[in-house]
Amino acid sequence: MRVIRAARFAGLAALLALALGGTVLQPGLAVAEAWEPRQAWLQRHGLRWMGGGWLGLVAVFAWMVFLVALMHHYVPAHRIATHLQMGLMLMGALLLVVGILVWMGVLPAVEDGATVLLVDRLALTLMGGGLFMAGAVTAWIGLDLGRLQKLPWRWLWPGILAGLATTPSPFLLPGGAHLTMALALWIVWCGVFAFRRRLPPPFPEYQAEAGK
User: Fold this and answer.
1) Which residue ranges of the chain lie beneath pLDDT 50?
2) 2: left (phi > 0), else alpha (psi -120 to 50), else beta?
3) Interhelix angle for 177-194 vs 3-22, to 10°?
4) Is the pTM of this model over 0.90?
5) Residue 132, CB half-sphere, CA atoms under 13 Å: how many?
6) Is 149 left (phi over 0), alpha (psi -120 to 50) or beta?
């Protein structure tokens, strides 16, 4: 997938996740509230909760697609740093996927408040670890692209800041203010690429030599 299309896909998925998470799915995400109203909402809106979980999985996949497209286009694949970035990305995505699946599939079946605390803690721990790794690798890739002089720094700062805003997740969840800011920055970063028709060439020095 081309970088521009990947950016559009990732930006749209993040925008939908941000919009639905802050409105339609908010009663189910209210971890700090009493369990009884939350349980009643989950029982009435099970399909909506499942749909939100699948949207979360799509957003994780879209995040990976955009970063992989950027790396494939601009970063040499043989570097050790590139392999480490890919490994960290995969570990972060795996933790996020498992955490979302636990919340999506197990939480609606819980009946007592004691069990819901365990399910919430398990899901948030998995997602907190996944978000930490995802934020770290996002910021790392952005800094790497700037250090390699592949893209202008002004194009990269939204992604770097989005990654940095995500890394405190293990310590801040279930609070979501930092994730709202991170998603907004991520959407801005995707927009930097999504509305362009052409991108800088990955290896301009080779093109310059070929034109001589």
Assistant:
1) 207-212
2) beta
3) 150
4) yes
5) 12
6) left
N- to C-terminal Cα distance for the chain?
31
Q: How remote is the C-alpha of 172 from its chain's centroid?
A: 16
What confidence score (pLDDT) does residue 164 get? Answer: 98
